[in-house]
Design a protein that fits this description.
The chain is of the alpha/beta class. Helices cover 41% and strands 22% of the residues. It has an eight-stranded parallel barrel with strand order 2-3-4-5-6-7-8-9, surrounded by seven helices. Strands 13-14-15 form a three-stranded antiparallel β-sheet, with helices on one face. Residues 13, 16, 46, 49-50, 74-76, 98-99, 109-110, 140, 170, 233 line the site of acetyl coenzyme *A.
């Protein structure tokens, strides 16, 4: 296995993401985590760009001791001097000089001829060499540059003292095969190339930054540059966690490894997301919220039988505690039963069926069924004695408007199997509903207490209602849940009446037995 160096530029190119602005303390916190993560080099910033960035790079250079700290600079003397002032306290001060080599950048941006570009690059590398032992030189926009010209300038900057040569795909323009060929070409056509390390630096404009980086490694790159979570200018940079895990998981095919502590990935990703405010999309490879989550029944069943059926990466490898079986409309019975087992509740096959049916019904209305929702369903089934004939709510409707009297219409099935219907007005929707249900039940009922809560958060959370009734002098409690508050309220009322029925029936049974 050959060792590939990881050059992290989260604090420089990552910070160039529109809208991201890290202060010194934030940069220092990220730098500490990058050191723990084990990156070989970290580009802490661009010292000449602002006083704030100078201070941040200096603080990082003075603090971080196990990772080489680098600062970016243009090929301008003052940029080099400022970079030195910021970095001289580092364990191993290093500078990253860049100058564009593509025709469009040279002509329009730099307004220099190719000869002037060579001369500037060489003289500034020589100047920087008086201060820095380690100099990375980047041919900005290398992938849109003339390859022969690239080979010529690279040979000269190596002679001037560069120790690392970087071929950036500045605008994310290249493709894996082409980028691989460029590395091969430079390796074969620059006579002194063996004196330096070769680095790749990819942007993700066409979504190929990680694939391009791996192609570069296959063709001679010994260093990969990128950022955590792939943040960076425009569509971002190659996501380092993706590169590292791809090399690890496909070590059967790629004979390369990094020195990164992969189980620090999640922590590193979290701190970068939090401090930059650039949150990771749910389906992001390696560390997205869904990267280890399974929703569909067939996948969940496979994962429960053997996680490797649908997981090529273990969550633990990247510091994620465990996978999640997300219960939703595509889930099946196996995952459902597994979740019930987690609650420590024993359900018979019939109860599982009933709970599963209720769960599936709920998924038609709710995007994500939470553990709280499931627990409520399971508990309702578990605490409901189904062997006794009970009242059943067939359907109901409540009419409410600020200008008219709320009125409820309810259809109930009674314990002896009859269907009864009535409508009553009330002061409010719940009162109208309760008065109507009461009118259909041939018992003397008094409502003592009524409560309504939401289970979990979100606008589609389940409603749970608790009531206390006195039925024919007996105090009984009832509980009901549903997505709609009125349905939950009706369920709670009927549940309390049914509990009364069970109580009475049980007492009658006892009397019969003693007779
Ligand atoms: C591909 C990359 O990611 S490169 C890094 C990009 N990062 C940044 O630009 C972030 C920090 N930048 C900044 O804060 C500012 O741009 C500064 C402080 C560096 C410069 O600010 P200003 O002096 O106002 O110049 P401005 O940014 O408008 O223009 C850039 C100048 O640098 C020149 N320049 C660009 N690259 C280089 C280079 N590698 N070497 C020398 N000069 C360069 C441009 O030609 C232009 O020069 P001009 O003023 O003679 O036309
Ligand atoms: C400074 C260089 C390496 C850069 O960020 C790029 O070309 O994208």
């Amino acid at each position: 296995m050959s060792q590939i160096k990881i050059f992290d530029t989260t604090l420089r190119d990552g910070e160039q993401s529109p809208g991201v602005n890290l202060n010194k303390l934030e940069k220092l916190e990220i730098a500490r985590q990058l050191e723990r993560f084990g990156v070989d080099r970290m580009e802490a910033g661009f010292p000449a760009s602002s006083k704030g960035d100078f201070e941040a790079v200096k603080a990082i250079a003075d603090t971080i001791k196990n990772t080489s700290v680098i600062g970016l600079a243009r090929t301008i003397k003052s940029d080099v001097d400022i970079a030195w002032d910021a970095l001289k306290g580092a364990e191993n001060p290093a500078i990253h000089l860049f100058l564009a080599t593509s025709p469009i950048h040279m002509e329009y941006k730099l307004k220099k001829t190719p000869e002037e570009v060579i001369e500037t690059a060489v003289s500034m590398v020589s100047y920087a060499k008086q201060k820095f032992k380690e100099i990375e030189w980047s041919a900005e926009d290398a992938t849109r540059s003339d390859w022969k010209f690239l080979a010529e300038i690279i040979e000269k900057v190596i002679d001037a003292g560069a120790t690392v040569i970087n071929l950036p795909d500045t605008v994310g323009y290249t493709t894996p095969v082409e980028y691989g060929k460029l590395f091969r070409y430079i390796s074969e056509n620059v006579p002194n190339i063996d004196q330096v390390e070769l680095s790749c630096h990819c942007h993700n404009d066409l979504g190929m930054a990680v694939a391009n980086s791996i192609a570069a490694v296959e063709n001679g790159a010994t260093q990969v540059e990128g950022t955590i979570n792939g943040i960076g200018e425009r569509a971002g940079n190659a996501a380092l966690e993706e590169v590292a895990v791809a090399l690890k998981i496909r070590s059967d095919y790629y004979p390369y490894e990094t020195g990164l502590k992969l189980n620090e990935i999640k922590r590193t990703s979290d701190i970068v997301a939090k401090l930059t405010g650039m949150y990771v999309q749910a389906n992001k490879a390696i560390i997205g919220r869904n990267a280890f989550a399974h929703e569909s029944g067939i996948h969940q069943d496979g994962v429960l039988k053997n996680a490797e059926t649908y997981e090529i990466i273990t969550p633990e490898l990247v510091g994620v505690t465990s996978n999640t079986l997300f219960l939703g409309k595509h889930s099946g019975r196996h995952a459902f039963k597994d979740k019930v087992k987690e609650f420590g509740v024993e359900l018979s096959e019939a109860e599982v069926k009933e709970a599963f049916d209720q769960f599936k019904k709920l998924t038609d209305h709710k995007k994500e069924v939470t553990d709280d929702d499931l627990y409520t369903i399971v508990m309702e089934i578990k605490t409901d004695s189904s062997s006794i004939n009970k009242y059943q709510l067939e359907k109901f409707q409540v009419q409410y408007g600020t200008e008219n009297v709320p009125t409820a219409t309810v259809v109930l099935k009674t314990p002896d199997g009859k269907t009864v219907e009535n409508s009553c007005p009330g002061q409010g929707s719940v009162e109208a509903l309760y008065k109507t249900i009461d009118s259909l039940i041939q018992e003397n009922i008094k409502l003592v207490d009524y409560q309504l809560n939401s289970v979990g958060g979100g606008k589609d959370a389940l409603a749970e209602s608790h009531v206390q009734l006195i039925v024919n002098g007996e105090t009984v409690n009832g509980r009901g849940s549903a997505q709609d508050v009125l349905q939950a309220s009706a369920n709670a009322f009927i549940n309390a009446v049914n509990r009364y029925m069970i109580k009475i029936n049980t007492a009658k049974m006892k009397e019969l037995v003693s007779e």
